[in-house]
Amino acid sequence: MTVVSVKQALAGGTAAADQEVTVRGWVRTLRESKGGLSFVNVSDGSCFAPIQVVATADLSNYETEVKHLSAGAGVIATGKLVPSQGKGQAFEIQATKLEVTGFVENPLTYPIQPKQHSMEFLREVAHLRPRTNLFGAVTRVRHTMMTAIHRILTEQGFFWINTPIITTSDAEGAGDMFRLSTLDLANLPRDDKGGIDWKKDFFGREAFLTVSGQLNVEGYAMAMSKVYTFGPTFRAENSNTTRHLAEFWMVEPEVAFADLNDIADLAELFLKGIFKAVLDERADDMAFFDERVMPGAIARLENFIAQPFERIDYTDAITILQKSGKKFEHAVAWGVDLQTEHERYLAEEHVGRPVVVMNYPEEIKAFYMRLNDDGKTVAAMDVLAPGIGEIIGGAQREERLDYLDRRMDQFHLDKQTYDWYRDLRRYGTVPHAGFGLGFERLLVYVCGLANIRDAIPYPRAAGSAEF
Amino acid sequence: MTVVSVKQALAGGTAAADQEVTVRGWVRTLRESKGGLSFVNVSDGSCFAPIQVVATADLSNYETEVKHLSAGAGVIATGKLVPSQGKGQAFEIQATKLEVTGFVENPLTYPIQPKQHSMEFLREVAHLRPRTNLFGAVTRVRHTMMTAIHRILTEQGFFWINTPIITTSDAEGAGDMFRLSTLDLANLPRDDKGGIDWKKDFFGREAFLTVSGQLNVEGYAMAMSKVYTFGPTFRAENSNTTRHLAEFWMVEPEVAFADLNDIADLAELFLKGIFKAVLDERADDMAFFDERVMPGAIARLENFIAQPFERIDYTDAITILQKSGKKFEHAVAWGVDLQTEHERYLAEEHVGRPVVVMNYPEEIKAFYMRLNDDGKTVAAMDVLAPGIGEIIGGAQREERLDYLDRRMDQFHLDKQTYDWYRDLRRYGTVPHAGFGLGFERLLVYVCGLANIRDAIPYPRAAGSAEF
């Protein structure tokens, strides 16, 4: 007996002629034919398609068990792997044994019926939704994209740095933060001024969840040259929209001796590499998304890969938008931040492919971005993609301590808090640049999902706080 | 001009004869010879060794800049890559240009002098310590181990599941948890009984940081068959020891249709694969650890890989310990949990290689572990390694709902809270098993570090709360 995955069985490759194999999984659909014959489609998550197991009345448990199977039951099927008569699959299994490891209690009320469910309903049964075609496919694509991120960056000589999740500084002021405490909130310790005595808290001071690992990872870039952080990131903004999550994964590469153009090159190589991995390794899942979720999903990725990104200066982008003749909801003028409607116009209508907008006004960008020689823009970039708008934001960092200090004053940041960050400019400073990419937003884009909650494994249910 | 990493330059492979290359990095050490000749060792983090850049008085900035270089300065060196006359390295660069991107302010007080620093001191300058030999090596080994984890599991057909970090359930009661809130603690909202009104908090209920993704990942194992979670995990236990962290990374594979022996096999393949990757890909860094941090570090990994793990039943292990004639600090009797001294005796003295202890008394193990037929042990295992003790803990899960319910009653767990977990037993239950591995503990073992705080990128300093 050779145990194989459904993927291996469907490929037929591992089975010698007439060899018995065993597959293990869950009944996806089943059909009983007349005269003691059942067709049981078994899925184990290894690929999109289930394998058909043909069970006959010859099986010793045919009447007692096989006939009582329903969608969702756990089974172990052993039999000969033979070319299939049915259309759409190359191989099927003629069962000589079909063991049932677990039936479904009350099949009629089992939440995952073999029919279309609303996405809203599936979010409420998040622990069961990986059993659907859609969430099986999302899970596999997610894995391919996440491991591609590591593979691509490793091939380019990057090191993965696990920057701290628990932080005692407000980082870049990038968003509202979650506070962390082990104090008894019903009975808070007080200092002699009547305030909360944070010295009694776990870390002896106030602590929060990180909103970005970028500043920390810069410290490693100043020794290891090419580094990235890739981990969960937290924003306590009202997350009840289809575009934001309180908890999401973010990848942030940071490169020493790099300028804005270098990092735009990296962003292009990076996104194209991830999409190529999905098209190569998850063709079956992408075919499903293309057919059932977002027509054109595959062509969108292929087009993304096929052409070089366009690069436009922010100042030129403003002129293009002003001359477009389009009526935008948000007015366009030099100095405003681009809204999604502007970003999509640039990528979709003006250029027709991904575009990197570079050199934004310094007022609308973070303190650590490098001031350009014009004195009014910083070396920041956003990668805008057709169908979604901004997908990557990056910048060359201000490596000159005197300039950084002026920007920190401008943003009313406490120099003492950031003194370690200023050290990086005191001791062997070098030009450096990096970008940040919210992973779930990219996954939504690849799969054509409408709600970002469907790009994370556990929204709402099953002990997860996300909603 | 071809930009190459120090690693590529030292390998010499990419440079044609007489070709000019450019390396970029930081001065590690330097030496001025008589007669206008400087030897500047430049490191960029790509490998353990720096490359020697030979600078002569012919350089236009020799007097003005090169002679003022000190350890830590940022430089860009261009020149011919030639076989080195010096011992210990194959190639050096004869500089035709040596650009300084950043000097070191006050070289005499620069924290990272080219000398031995105490580990305690380096924890206080965590943002600069990657510039040392030791932490450069730790960073590279960490990267190799972490990416090996993904590669090995991907090759075995596993999918990476990002289980929630923010949770609303107390998981397995595995440890004290950090509470998370966006409420104004100085002014907490009250419910009509005078208690804290959690409905007003961000998620509308109490929220915590996860102590384990295992229960969540089981839901995915029941659809995708082979899955793992690998991410930061949090324990609000007093972490001020050399062995515990408040924030650490944990990998938890979970396999459907697997029993305790299957998961012990996986643990063996997994650990050996990680160590083999380190020995293959980080020979230079391991040579350093072997010479300077823990003599025998390499042999320890080689021995670990060379032999099959031993397997011992817990009950037999107790007998072995009792008959050992050793005086243990903690008394040995059937029913007690093994202490590190017991674990190390078994692995180091009794067996002399890694040993898997299996089938522990049910009273000392978690509620989700599968009760054995003897009614008094559960299908749990610990992998014990010479030199450290327990390194992996795992179990077959209780897949029978009636048994699980009895265990939950025994542990006074609320069935309503875990109803989603019970669903996994109601709907197509299958045997399954998994294990958990604390990543930093493994890194400490590989590198021979004495304190786990040296296995994380940012302890204490630079905005990290860890200490």
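qc> The mean pLDDT of chain A is 93.
qc> done
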